[in-house]
Design a protein that fits this description.
2 copies of one chain form a homodimer.
Chain A: E1 2-3, E2 9-10, E3 13-14, E4 17-18, E5 49-50, H1 53-60, E6 67-69, H2 80-90, E7 96-98, H3 111-115, E8 119-122, H4 129-135, E9 144-145, H5 148-157, E10 164-168, E11 171-172, E12 178-179, H6 193-199, E13 202-207, E14 227-230, H7 237-240, H8 251-267, E15 276-277, H9 282-297, E16 304-309, H10 311-318, E17 324-330, H11 333-341, E18 345-347, H12 350-354, E19 368-371, E20 375-377, E21 382-383, H13 399-405, E22 408-412, E23 416-417, E24 420-421, E25 423-424, E26 439-442, E27 445-448, H14 453-461, H15 469-480, E28 488-497, E29 503-510
Parallel strand pairs in A: 5-14, 6-7, 6-10, 7-8, 9-28, 10-13, 13-14, 15-16, 15-19, 16-17, 17-18, 19-22, 20-25, 22-26
Antiparallel strand pairs in A: 1-2, 3-4, 11-12, 20-21, 23-24, 26-27, 28-29
Helix pairs in contact in A: 8-9
Chain lengths: ~500, ~500
């Protein structure tokens, strides 16, 4: 057991692998080479079509203890992972690791297969019941939570090797060329799957929309795809890009958005060339709306919008407020349609989006990112993985990646959530280190990290309610009271890997 | 010394590496993994811009004996390779290997640096004076001639490692995102350079058109690019896409084209889904014109056009005769403009185009390819590398790749060239094995490989002048006389690598 630089106790190893305690966001230099998949040979006349998932799994050579992956661009509408795990179980395989880009509540269906030992653990974060049950001690399966960039890094550096990648391919030809732009299960960008296709030993394209050769544009090329399987449906289109992408109407949310947009204006970043990322939550979109209005008013021509892309950003691109969108995943149907028709809406891989171990990711070029939090501590450390009950419920996404990359990362959150204060002495779990967070905005005030002293001064000058973060905490706790600390067992049920592979925190079993 | 399966004497090693004699087009199975470049880390705020080529070469760590590469999409208009070699010479480096995708006559400027030992040799084929001088014994520099697919293979499997790739980037941002679509040196597809960028230890983007971040569409991403250098001019736009892409008006050429197009019609391949490649020569284009007319007449909707792309194929795409173009290099300005505006005009890497060692290249999907020849023998083996004087003058290009991939490969050539017969007992150099050639078309008759017995029958039925290839040879030689055999020294000045890495032939020094 060692303390990392944020004071969290990190065990020496987890799931059989030694752990490196987190030090700082930028120091670790990668050693060695990128991972390498096997060379292949496919001669003319070869047929890649197989008749079923079962046949494809058999052909892939999947064996006990190996690792599989799917992408999460179909989100909670995904049918594929459940079907694969059911087939694997039916085949009698055991001890399979899942290294998908994310796992969603819909995948709770695989829980019996975790209990039976078909699934050994997760080389990825999980959303929903699986994490909750693990935290309660009801499931035994190691979980290594990774950022989007960190997941790309782990596969590219080879610390996670995907034996068989199953790629849900919304538009695919018989030779494996695919994109996510068209078809009943269109999801837009295949930015996560591009990594799997490039580094997995075996790649199986699974489609419900087989079209004549060749699919163009090509998002993932035939050269990487071993087998092609047609299924009836990849997912439930109503849930594939399901995020509610509506601007909040809640007065608290609107107040937060107003403050956040004023912070951006005060930062001096909102000038020609401005680059920006927001999530798809109601507050984030309210910030985006205010930023859009400010850009219109100031005739500001931005550079790029980034991340998970919503119709909001599509509108800003089409209006000329951005010159490009850099899209690792589409959050709504407007984004899906845009990426299929507009070449300035650029599909990017998770590597290009956020991997810290390449010659420079897109997050490095961000001026400003708007991020959420379940908790923040007085050192600006942020938790998005666990809720205040200690349950692991959320994957990290691009949170730590964009925070580390952007010139200014802004946390927007209501000061009170579920009667609990957002600002804590100590967050339940550290997802993103405070040294990469610029500003925390609540409806009760704005806390600025000391690293941004000039910005703080400017906010004060503009008469915005700037407060010391400890002061903000006290003010909130006067309303909520001081929450009783959670109690945990020693048992580690998940580790939170920082984007560079070091361990920023662990999740322990909650005491009943 | 061993005989390969085509009876050519292959030395045991060349330039310090053991040689594998050619066996057959499809048998060699690759072993091991794809090559891996070093992991990198670039933190936010890092500046990739360097002020000169010299500074970039210094930063790259280039040392004596290392290997550099450029791409040849600027063809005979390229300024970059000459400038790099001049800088390397000025820095006092020695023994540098060139592994460019091709070398053109304009690069004869580096000959003094070969003589002085700055340049040790070529891990690629060469066009023009360098090969000629090597064949005459006037230059000592090993030359390993590779097909476009074989060159991609050699880099991807790691048998050739590029230490520093210099990428002429017609449209580039300061972080290294680039495409070839726009700018004064626009060349269209960067299909060759994509390989270099992905596998080289160090990647330097060189541009004469630095544009604001981010370049979209991204053909080569920032994640692969270490440095960015701005120069005044990358090349001479008048020569960058310089190929004369005019249909021949020569009656002999038109006769050949007419026969070739009738062969295609007789083959049964010219139906919906037809896929096709031609070069940019006058006869090839005449064939394309006739095929286009036949497609119009028959209301045939083709699948894709492939290869080096000309305005001819662009017109066919826009007319709906193809649903896509798969473009590894643009042969003219019409193609450059099309790839920049039409997403059905798909940029593909040399890996995707023609590498035999991946999960399936585009050439595997070709129905028909039209190819040239300097000589053909009575076993259908084809020479495109040397002329009948024995001089190594031409690189292989995609010749052997497409011949191996396509269902039907057709050689079009005048029966007599420079008073010499096109059909020989033995070609000076074997570039492409006869077992991958379907038909040889001359104005004096059509020879069909026995592998295509049904096609031969159909051509006879259609009363086309089908002749046994030996008979065709005799008929031509009655006009030309039998040429005197060339005489060679034992010294091997170049090896002709087949696409799979085996050696199909060698080029020996010509006896004076």
């Amino acid at each position: 057991m060692a303390l990392n630089s944020l004071g969290r106790e990190i065990p020496e190893s987890y799931a059989g692998k030694p752990l490196i305690p987190y030090g700082d966001p930028y120091a670790i230099r990668p050693q060695g080479n990128v991972a390498a998949r096997p060379l292949k040979r496919v001669n003319p006349g070869h047929n890649k079509r197989l008749s079923s998932l079962r046949e494809a799994i058999e052909a892939s050579g999947l064996k006990d203890g190996m690792t599989i992956a799917t992408h999460h661009s179909l989100r909670n509408g995904d049918f594929l992972l459940n079907r694969i795990v059911a087939e694997i179980a039916a085949m009698g395989l055991k001890g399979i690791w899942i290294a998908s880009s994310s796992v969603h509540p819909v995948h709770a269906e695989i829980i019996p297969h975790i209990k039976s030992g078909v699934i050994a653990g997760f080389q990825c974060g999980v959303n929903g019941l699986i994490g909750e049950m693990a935290t309660k001690g009801e499931l035994t399966c190691p979980i290594v939570v990774r950022t989007h960039g960190g997941r790309a890094r782990s596969v590219i550096e080879g610390s996670v090797h995907i034996d068989v990648a199953f790629i849900a391919a919304p538009c695919c030809d018989e030779y494996g060329n695919m994109n996510g732009y068209y078809g009943p299960s269109a999801c837009g960008s295949l930015g996560y799957a591009q990594i799997d296709a490039t580094y997995a030993s075996c790649v199986i394209a699974v489609t419900d929309n087989l079209v004549p050769f060749p699919v163009v544009p090509v998002s993932i090329p035939q050269t990487l795809v071993d087998y092609v399987v047609v299924v009836d449906r990849l997912g439930d289109p109503a849930k594939i890009v399901s995020t509610t992408t509506r601007v909040t109407t809640d007065p608290v949310g609107l107040q937060i958005a107003s403050y956040a947009s004023q912070v951006i204006e005060a930062s001096g970043l909102l000038r020609d060339g401005f680059s920006f990322q927001t999530g798809s939550g109601g507050i984030s979109l309210a910030v985006a709306e205010k930023v859009r209005n400010a850009m219109r008013k100031g005739s500001i021509k931005g550079s790029f919008g980034c991340g998970g892309i919503t119709g909001y950003f599509v509108d800003m691109l089409e209006e000329g407020l951005f010159s490009a969108l850099m899209d690792v995943q589409c959050f709504d149907q407007e984004a899906v349609q845009s990426i299929g028709r507009n070449r300035a809406h650029q599909e990017i891989s998770a590597d290009m989006y956020a991997n810290p171990f390449n010659a420079g990711a897109v997050v490095n070029r961000l001026d400003c990112v708007i991020l959420g939090a379940t908790e923040v501590d007085t050192s600006f450390n942020v938790n998005v993985n666990t809720e205040s009950n200690g349950y692991l419920l959320h994957n990290t996404g691009g949170h730590s990646d964009t925070a580390a990359g952007a010139k200014l990362s802004i946390i927007v959150a209501p000061s009170i959530r579920g009667r609990l204060p957002i600002v804590r002495d100590r967050v339940t779990t550290i997802t993103t280190p405070g040294e990469t967070i610029g500003v925390v905005v609540t409806e009760r005030g704005i806390a600025v990290n000391e690293k941004h002293a000039e910005l703080k001064e400017e906010l004060v000058r503009r008469k915005l309610p700037v407060k010391d973060i400890a002061e903000l905490q006290r003010e909130i706790c006067r309303v909520t009271g001081t929450p009783r600390p959670l109690e945990f067992e020693d048992e580690v049920v998940a580790v939170i890997e920082y984007r560079d592979g070091s361990i920023i925190d662990v999740v322990r079993r909650v005491k009943e």
